[in-house]
């Protein structure tokens, strides 16, 4: 069943079945013995039928069970429910939507990056390296970044093995080897998962400054980030970097919450919460990993001089001028002579706007 | 080849939990795990019914479908078994199973799951039949001994039936015709969906 159909069916259920049930309750046949009315009513509420019992097993009774009616269990971990009907939906959502389409989303992300590389190539410094640098990220910033990066990569790989291993890895290395790898992946994922929360909080505090939306970002978006066309002016962070930051913060928080539920299953009130957590965790993971692939590409292979900001922390002046002109102007107080004739007219605007937003922010 | 099935006649089950106990004893199942459980519906009210439930050995088993390490396999008799050497204790089979069959021993201090344990239809596991290794991991292999599952064999009211699906459903049909009521073959619609009538 389609996920949308599922949601639609749930709404339909609420719209149609619930009023019907109340109708049914009204049209209950009066019992032959009026004294028993109270008990009969109680029974009706319990099992949802009007004329069962005694020695009869009504089909409605069994149908209710099939849809997850509770009983009373005296033994076992699985509790009162005889049939948990959501399990089948969970299976479909996981197998069809998450594993299949999620895998394709990741493959598409990789494909698009390769395509971008083939079309645009490495974005080089037009003026070449000057040798003169300015400081972009302090050591605490870089430490927070690489702490998060290490944990993120570890969790991504181990998580992907659990998600896609059976489809991708198992046919290659065989069941036994795959089981060992998957077991290590699961243990590693559970072990390093909580560290992700530490890294996330640290990263958020270190990088939140300067990551709020500014008017310059709107122009950056309108110019498509200068990915294919002329340069789009940007401050310390361009809109792409800001978007990535907020994706990490928001999706990362969701990953942390669902991850904790899955790591400590007894925290979950119900099996349904665990089922939803697995699905949400997987969707969040696919979103984050896809975006991370782009982030890693542009930070290393895709752009000359970009990696410096996270290794030495000092970037070449030319890189700053060409990619973060507004930031360069702010730091050095010097104007960037814009080489793009097309963009030169809008430079004063940018300055004004950034000056305005600077004052309003601080 | 016979298609092995369980059937619990809710008109006969008296909630004695002997199936649970017999199973535990036969397979020397560790503390904290029950491969079978009894659920009572409308407890203490008119129309109370009890049903003994364990792995139903589904035709299109959800556990097999979702297992990330593909540790499940279905025998020619339709019995769903798993390989504990492959199992990583992720819990996904428990998320998917309609009957709550998979059980996990607590493995770590933080409550992490150990390798999954579930009803084997008394058919052991992938190890050699009657080997000590098989008994340790999966319990006794009664099917290889030519016997049927202990839970059904020693059920005091013969509420729980186990064996060839055709024979099981014939016995049940005779009962229903004989007593004239009680035709809810509980769980069959979910477990043996798509197999047609037997």
Write the layout of secondary structure elements.
The complex is a heterodimer of chains A (362) and B (198).
Chain A (H helix, E strand, L loop, with lengths): L2 H24 L10 H11 L11 H8 L5 E2 L12 H35 L12 E3 L3 H35 L1 H33 L7 H8 L16 H25 L7 H29 L8 H4 L2 E3 H7 L1 H8 L8 H4 L2 H15 L1
Antiparallel strand pairs in A: 2-3
Helix pairs in contact in A: 4-9, 5-6, 6-8, 8-9, 11-12
Chain B lengths: L3 E5 L9 H10 L9 E5 L7 E5 L8 H5 L5 E3 L5 E3 L9 H5 L35 H7 L11 H4 L6 E5 H15 L8 H4 L7
Antiparallel strand pairs in B: 1-6, 2-3, 4-5
Brief summary of the model shown:
The complex is a heterodimer of chains A (362) and B (198). Chain A has 362 residues and is mostly helical.
Biggest chain pair interface: A-B, 59 and 60 residues
Span between termini of chain B: 13 Å
End-to-end C-alpha gap of chain A: 52 Å
Strand and helix order of chain B: EHEEHEEHHHEHH
Q: What structural category characterises the helix and strand content of chain B?
A: alpha+beta
Strand composition percent of chain B = 5-15%
Read across the widest sheet of chain A, the strand sequence of neighbours is: 2-3
Please identify the top-level CATH class of the largest domain in chain A.
Mainly Alpha
Runs of chain B in which pLDDT lies below 50 for 5 or more consecutive residues are none
User: What is the general shape of chain B?
Assistant: globular
In the CATH hierarchy, the architecture of the largest domain in chain A is: Up-down Bundle
Quaternary state of this entry equals: heterodimer
- Give the averaged pLDDT of chain A, no decimals: 79
Q: Assign an overall shape of chain A.
A: elongated
What is the number of helices of chain B? Answer: 7
Q: Biggest sheet of chain A, open or closed, and with what strands and sense?
A: 2 strands, antiparallel
| Count of separate structural domains of chain A | 2
Mean of the pLDDT scores of chain B? 89
The Cα radius of gyration of chain B reads 17 Å
Alpha plus pi helix count of chain A: 14
User: How many discrete structural domains of chain B?
Assistant: 1
């Amino acid at each position: 069943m389609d996920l949308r159909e599922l949601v639609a069916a749930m709404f339909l259920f609420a719209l149609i079945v619930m009023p019907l049930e109340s109708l049914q309750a009204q049209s209950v046949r009066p019992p032959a013995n009026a004294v028993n009315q109270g008990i009969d009513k109680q029974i009706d509420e319990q099992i949802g039928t009007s004329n069962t019992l005694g020695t009869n097993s009504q089909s409605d009774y069994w149908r209710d069970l099939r849809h997850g009616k509770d009983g009373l269990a005296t033994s076992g971990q699985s509790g009162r429910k005889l049939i948990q009907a959501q399990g089948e939906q969970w299976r479909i959502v996981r197998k069809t939507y998450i594993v299949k389409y999620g895998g394709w989303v990741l493959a598409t992300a990789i494909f698009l990056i390769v395509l971008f590389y083939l079309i645009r190539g490495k974005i080089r410094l037009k003026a070449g390296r000057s040798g003169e640098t300015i400081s972009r990220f302090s050591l605490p910033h870089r430490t927070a970044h690489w702490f998060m990066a290490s944990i993120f990569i570890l969790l991504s790989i181990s998580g992907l093995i659990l998600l896609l291993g059976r489809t991708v890895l198992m046919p290659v290395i065989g069941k036994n080897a795959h089981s060992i790898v998957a077991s290590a992946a699961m243990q590693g994922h559970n072990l390093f998962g909580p560290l992700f929360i530490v890294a996330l909080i640290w990263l958020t505090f270190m990088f939140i400054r300067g990551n709020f939306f500014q008017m310059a970002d709107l122009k950056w978006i309108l110019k498509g980030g200068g990915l294919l066309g002329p340069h789009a002016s940007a401050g310390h962070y361009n809109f792409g970097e800001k978007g990535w930051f907020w994706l990490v913060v928001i999706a990362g928080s969701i990953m942390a919450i669902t991850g904790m539920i899955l790591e400590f299953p007894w925290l979950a009130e119900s099996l349904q919460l665990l089922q939803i957590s697995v699905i949400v965790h997987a969707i969040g993971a696919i979103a984050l990993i896809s975006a991370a692939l782009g982030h890693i590409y542009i930070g290393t292979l895709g752009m000359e001089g970009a990696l410096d900001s996270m290794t030495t922390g000092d970037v070449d002046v030319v890189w700053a001028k060409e990619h973060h002109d507004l930031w360069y102007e702010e730091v050095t107080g010097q104007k960037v002579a814009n080489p793009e004739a097309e963009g030169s007219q809008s430079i004063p605007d940018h300055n004004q706007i950034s000056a305005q937003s600077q004052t309003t922010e601080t | 080849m016979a298609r092995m099935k369980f059937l619990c006649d809710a008109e006969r089950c008296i909630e004695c939990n002997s199936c649970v106990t017999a199973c535990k004893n036969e397979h020397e199942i560790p503390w904290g795990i029950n491969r079978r459980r009894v659920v009572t519906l409308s407890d203490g009210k008119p129309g109370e019914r009890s049903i003994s439930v364990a792995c139903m050995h589904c035709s299109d088993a959800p556990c097999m479908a979702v297992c990330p390490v593909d540790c499940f396999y279905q025998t020619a008799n339709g019995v769903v078994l798993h390989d504990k050497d492959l199992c990583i204790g992720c819990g996904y089979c428990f998320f998917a199973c309609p009957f709550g069959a998979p059980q996990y021993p607590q493995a770590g201090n933080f409550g992490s799951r150990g390798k999954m344990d579930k009803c084997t239809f008394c058919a052991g596991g992938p190890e050699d039949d009657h080997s000590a290794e098989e008994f340790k991991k999966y319990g006794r292999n009664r099917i290889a001994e030519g016997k049927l599952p202990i839970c059904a064999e020693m059920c005091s009211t013969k509420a729980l039936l186990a064996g060839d699906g055709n024979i099981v459903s014939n016995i049940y049909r005779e009962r229903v015709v004989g007593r004239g009521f009680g035709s809810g073959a509980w769980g069959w619609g979910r477990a043996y969906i798509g197999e047609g009538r037997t």
